[in-house]
Design brief:
By secondary structure, the protein is an alpha/beta fold. Helix content is 48%, strand content 11%. The strands form 3 sheets. It has a 6-stranded mixed sheet, sandwiched between helices. It has a 5-stranded parallel sheet with strand order 6-5-7-8-9, sandwiched between helices. α16 (343-355) links the parallel β10 (330-336) and β11 (374-377). α1 packs antiparallel against α4 (57-69) and α8 runs antiparallel to α16. The chain is globular and about 80 Å long. The structure holds 6-O-phosphono-beta-D-fructofuranose. 6-O-phosphono-beta-D-fructofuranose binds at residues 152-155, 205-207, 210, 213, 267-268, 353, 506, 509.
């Protein structure tokens, strides 16, 4: 038995689950008119309503006990104080320093990291302003119009999500592009829209070794030189964002044009580092700093708020309640805010690469509890017409997060009120459901009776009692975006701390990379391959016949 499942709070939660699981939230709301005010919190203008969860006061107090007994407070303290909590890689985890707007010293091995953070922010400010106002131009003197970020995973998803989310703030004559996939279609389709004279490439890679990014960067360089015909011109069109100065130099990028970050910033936690340069170029450095402010405010909330009023802690605990006691396998994120359509994809990396672990921090295989959920989602209302059927009436329990802004950036007739009516209706429907009697009554009114009525009533009834969280904010501003991202980051931390796993390595991505390198060699020539398993040999040989 693991230490976690032997904790008194864990055992008490297992017993408590037997009491709660038969209860219906419909009845809990009827019995308690104060349920919403008791189970909702506000952080700045973000309202977090968690009242539509299968919880009561006892559940919360046991979950909070679990947080305490798992040492969550000490683990938060260890992260904020620069301890090397990423033990497999022997690294500190200090993305909170990137947005430490208080500028209070944060020490790593006795050295304050803030001067380095501030130096790179100054460099980003100067560079982005010079590009935006046209001081820094292309090799023929024309203004930069297209910025192509070449990066993958954390070196792509964060800035892509933020730039998409903040579309209303983008300078009208500026076109951001993101190329991540090694499939040449993505790079070529992007380059078709660009002109060498007016395009700036940001080669973003923490390691500067990632195969997809380096392949794309080399091809972009060739495309650029095919027209510019002058290696000297590269410095005006290529910059690097990386922790690896040696490889940046080897690639041919002047270190003057390198934006540094550090090994204590995880790739999937790097949006607030120099990896955010495309965001600063798109919306301006001042607004980028608003993202940092929003994230910092949440960092302070996470660090100081008592757990019972700490939103990321509660988000994490609720997830654990469903994951570990109800057996829920996935978690869905549903933004009713078109500009946040990419958030679920961003959170897939943040959550699944962090908490998709099967070994605890002592190096023991985890056998008696489950860790990170499958995270998925899509913008509402699109999802409603695709997969909500399964959430409402399927046999699986899928906890949902709904997010929406009370105000939209642009206005067109009744579009936004219609969107919002769906944002309110779906969690209500998921919670209330429709009883068999209600379904029968509806059918009777439609003139259906007898066996047909019973048959249809079964299909039309909804079990309800499906848990949802709702996040309702004023408007999707840079500050709000920063806060939302930080809320999820700390939710992930909370869960990883309780599951006693290392959220900050990603060993599980290595095996496939290694095999791809071997297979790349096997793909040369037409000779048939026999060195892999039967299926892999068969696929490679069929590919050789077809290509
Ligand atoms: O392969 C996974 C991964 O290492 C992610 O963790 C990371 O965000 C991504 O690849 C890109 O890495 P890099 O920024 O070093 O190119």
């Amino acid at each position: 038995m693991s230490k976690l499942t032997a904790l008194p709070a864990w055992l008490a939660l297992q017993r408590h689950y037997q009491d709660i699981s038969p209860l219906h939230m419909r009845d809990m709301f009827k019995a308690d008119p104060q349920r919403f005010s008791r189970f909702s919190l506000q952080f700045e203008d973000i309202l977090f309503d968690y009242s539509k969860n299968r919880i009561d006061d006892t559940t919360l107090s046991l979950l909070l006990d679990l947080a305490k007994q798992s040492g969550l407070a000490e683990k938060i303290g260890a992260m904020y104080s620069g301890q090397k909590i990423n033990t497999t890689e022997d690294r500190a985890v200090l993305h909170i320093a990137l947005r430490n707007r208080s500028n209070r010293p944060i020490y790593l091995s006795g050295r304050d990291v803030m001067p380095d953070v501030n130096r790179v922010l100054d460099q980003m400010r100067q560079f982005s302003e010079e590009v935006r106002i046209g001081i820094r131009r292309g090799y023929t003197g024309k203004r930069i119009r297209d910025v192509v970020n070449i990066g993958i995973g954390g070196s792509d998803l964060g800035p892509y999500t933020a730039v998409t989310a903040l579309t209303p703030y983008i300078k009208s004559d500026f076109r951001p592009h993101f190329v991540s996939n090694v499939d040449e279609s993505e790079l070529l389709d992007t380059l078709d829209q660009c002109d060498q004279e007016t395009t700036l490439f940001l080669v973003a890679s923490k390691t500067f070794t990632t195969q997809e990014t380096m392949t794309n960067a080399h091809s972009a360089r060739q495309w650029f030189l095919a027209k510019a015909r002058d290696e000297e011109a590269i410095s005006k069109h290529f910059v690097a964002i990386s922790t690896n100065a040696r490889l940046v130099k080897e690639f041919g990028i002047d270190l003057e044009n390198m934006f540094e970050f550090w090994d204590w910033v995880g790739g999937r936690y790097s949006m607030c580092s120099a990896i955010g340069l495309p965001i600063a170029l798109a919306i301006g450095m001042e607004r980028f700093e608003k993202i940092l402010e929003g994230a910092h405010a949440v960092d302070e909330h996470f660090r100081t708020a008592p757990f019972e009023r700490n939103i990321p802690v509660l988000m994490g605990l609720l997830g654990i309640w469903y994951n570990n006691f109800f057996g829920a396998e996935s978690h869905v994120v549903l933004p009713y805010d078109h500009h946040l359509a990419f958030l679920p994809t961003y959170l897939q990396q943040a959550d699944m690469e962090s908490n998709g672990k099967g070994v605890d921090k002592q190096g023991r295989r985890i056998t008696d509890y489950t860790t990170g959920p499958i995270l998925w989602g899509q913008s509402g209302a699109n999802g409603q017409h695709a997969f909500y059927q399964l959430i409402h009436q399927g046999t699986k329990l899928i906890p949902c997060d709904f997010l929406a802004g009370a105000q939209s950036h642009r206005h067109l007739g009744a579009h936004h009120p219609i969107l919002m009516s769906n944002f309110f209706a779906q969690p209500e429907a998921l919670m209330l459901g429709k009883t068999l009697d209600e379904a029968r009554e509806e059918l009777r009114k439609e003139g259906v009776d007898g066996e047909r009525l019973e048959f249809l009533a079964q299909a039309k009834a909804f079990p309800g009692n499906r848990p949802t969280n709702a996040f309702l904010y004023r408007k999707l501003t840079p500050r709000t975006l920063g806060s939302l991202i930080a809320l999820y980051e700390h939710k992930i931390f909370t869960q990883g701390a309780i599951w006693d796993i290392n959220c900050f390595d990603q060993m599980g991505v290595e095996l496939g990379k290694h095999l791809a390198n071997t297979i790349q060699k096997d793909m040369a020539g037409d000779a048939s391959i026999a060195s892999h398993d039967g299926s892999t040999n068969g696929l490679i040989n069929y590919y050789k016949a077809l290509r």
